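Table 4 source record.
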Amino acid sequence: MTKDWTFDQPLDDKTPTSSSEERAKIAALFHKENQEGAGDVDYAAAFEMEQQKTKEKSVSRPKTQEQSIPKDVPSSTITSDYKQYLANVMAQNNEDIAQSQKKIEELHQLIDDKNKHNKKLQAISAAIDDL
């Protein structure tokens, strides 16, 4: 069992603590029971296994040409998740650009129509002045 500690004790103990003791302290801070079975985790080995799985998946399936339309496929690594997010953002930006260009073209057409209308009105005004 871990030793009890209070705030009047120094934060750093002179003796090193194990990861299970650290977990117990954190659980006590959040008023949760220490969950047994967590054990020590070898994060480096877990990372290597994840990288190996990713390499095996990429080797086993042939590469296809990437499409501009993002796919809604769940991915297994944070880098591929972020890459998917970036693809979604770029696709949305491209849609926004296309819509903005369409609005700009409509505004140019409206300006041209107004200019033609003003020229007609100027011609009518000039004709009235000549009478």
